[in-house]
Amino acid sequence: MTEHIPPPPPPEAPVDPDPAGRSVKGAVIGGVAVAAVLAGGLGAFAVYQKLDGGGPQPHDVMPASTQAYARLDLDPSASQKIELFQLIRRFPDVADDIGITSDGQDVRELIFDQVLAPECPGLDYEDDVEPWLGSRIGIGANIEDESFQIALQTTDEQASQAGIKKLFGCADEEYGIAYLDGYAILSDTQQAVDAAVTATEKGTLADKKAFVDDFDALGDQGIASAWVDVAALAKVPELAEAFGEQADTFAKAGSGATTLRVDGNALELVALSGRVSDEEPSPTDLGALPKDTIAALSVSGVGDQVGTSFDSFVQQLDGGLGAMLLPDDVDDPSSTEIDPSDDPSGDDAQDFIDEIERETGLRLPEDLETLFGDTLTLAVGARNVEQLPTFGGPDDLSTLDVALSLTSDRAKALDLVQRLADLAADVGIPLVTAATDRGAVLATNQDAADAVSDPDGTLGERDTFTEVVPDAEASSSGLFVDIGAIIDALQQADPPDDLAKDLEEASDLSAFGLSVGEDDDHSTLRLRLALTED
User: Fold this and answer.
1) What is the C-alpha to C-alpha distance for residues 138 and 315, in angstroms, rounded to an integer?
2) Are 176 and 186 a contacting pair, CB within 8 Å?
3) Is residue 470's pLDDT more than 80?
């Protein structure tokens, strides 16, 4: 049953009735919701209560017409039953900065103390907020009709009425309120709330197929999650204009979802959208790199895109160069005071590219297509990294193991890397080149070049790698950084005291990984930050 509660009058001065003039941001309860969602990156994972994760979610009380949605859950599912405070408290300075004092601290009180208490000095968390505030907060919006709703889970409806009234009283804001399935539904007017509740009773966001499909593919919603109907937003005239040429791509993506969650000893952010390309990109080469690789980047499917987008790039560059080359005292490039023969627009971008080709011997965009080819991979080995702070010149680079591997047309790739090596030699950087079975490699020394082609053990065999890039074989692009190995190497270099302290404080970080992949329906971006074993 839905109960409509009339909003209280503003304490003193009336609020501007013009919707464009209302300050949603100024509403204190809006501050609760916004701060809570933002806390997904800070305080949200700072506390974690061992409670049953069942019950309605905010999307169960949002209308199906919702186009953008964000949620924070301080009571996640059973798979997330981990004391997240123990993770963040391994970084004392960070914990102190965001006000974490104990493993059992309530993140709701943390947000209240840091965000609301300064605005509401007469409000007491234990008396006015804690008795009724639940563990879930959601924000939903429809961009086309400029409506929004905030859903606050409540444990005591009667107590929440008084508490919410006090919260809004701090900001002298009007609001509308209704209750639905254990949530207080809030917006800037009662009319907006009534319309949202009526729409929700006809169909919820949880009934929307695109939303359900996205979150099914996403898996556990974790601590915080969000969803956007990208196709609908791409049709809004103002946004379509802002998206420009990408509007069609956004429309084809359909919708997107993201979540922040804990998986073992790692924090994970996953974002997905509908597929926008029918082509199957090549898998990343990250897992096949030498076992001692401490940093690597691999991208695939870019070579074909370079050729098709190069003309557009030249046009954009042309406009940028024209603006930069105009005299400083000319505000209007179309002014009749400017001699057309002096107009810096026109063929400047192509002239600039022609000059690059003459100076370097490169051929654009052909060499870019070869460079990226099917897959382009950069790998940095662990050998001699600790000596990096003491390097005195380009010749020292040969003591590092750095390799750029091109999976591309073999003859074209070998020709390109040889020309790049010649250009590097002109500025005193010695590089070696070699042909591989699938293309060519450019490296700082022969051992690094050989290791990429025939490694003695692979990165995919290391737990540190698979912890942060668990789906390397199915990924079309990826990034890996062995943070722990880099910190260890720099600590061996006898760093200055201030840097040594920073390195020590970061020593609980193990590795970072990013991977991009696709299945039949979705494109997925996954970021993982792993901590060392406690």
Assistant:
1) 43
2) yes
3) yes
CB 224 within 8 A of CB 263: no
What does the buried/exposed string (b/e) look like for 282-298 if buried means 16 or more CB atoms within 10 Å of the residue's CB?
bbbbbbbbbbbbbbbbb
pLDDT computed for residue 25 by the predictor: 33
pLDDT for 27: 34
Show me where the domains of the chain are located: 206-276, 286-302+373-526, 307-360
Query: 250-289 pLDDT, tens per residue?
Result: 777 789 999 998 887 888 999 998 876 666 767 887 999 9
Question: Is the peptide bond prior to 365 cis by the omega test (within 30 degrees of 0)?
Answer: yes
Distance CA 443, CA 403 (A): 4
Q: What is the rounded CA–CA span in Å between residue 370 and residue 358?
A: 19
Report which residue type is found at 12: E
pLDDT for position 104? 55
Residues with Cβ < 8 Å from 278, sequence gap 6 or more? Answer: none
Residue tagged 């300075």 (tokens): 93
Q: Which pLDDT does position 392 carry in this prediction?
A: 81
Q: pLDDT of 123-135, one tens digit each?
A: 888 888 899 999 8
Nearest to 31 by CA among 137, 143, 162: 137
Residue 38 dihedral angles phi and psi, to the nearest 5°: -60, -30
Calculate the dihedral angle through the C-alpha atoms of 327, 331, 333, 338, rounding to the nearest 10 degrees.
-60
**Both tokens assigned to 493:** 């270099």
Structure tokens at 45: 């994972």
Alpha-carbon 526 to chain mean position? 9
Measure Cα distances from 257 to 58, 143, 453 in Å.
15, 17, 38
Q: What is the pLDDT of residues 352-376, one digit of tens each?
A: 888 999 999 999 999 999 999 999 9
3-state secondary structure at position 180: strand
Closest C-alpha among 267, 237, 149 to residue 514? 267
The position carrying tokens 């053990």 is 457
Amino acid 488 reads D
Enter the tokens of residue 311: 């003309």
Other Cβ atoms closer than 10 A to 191: 10
CA 395: distance to chain centroid?
37
CA–CA distance, 248 with 234 (Å, rounded to integer): 8
Position 28 confidence tier, pLDDT thresholds 50, 70, 90: very low
Measured distance CA(470)–CA(307) in Å, rounded: 32
pTM: 0.79
Alpha helices in 235-365 (DSSP H): 237-243, 247-253, 303-325, 348-360
380 within 8 A of 295, measured Cβ to Cβ: yes
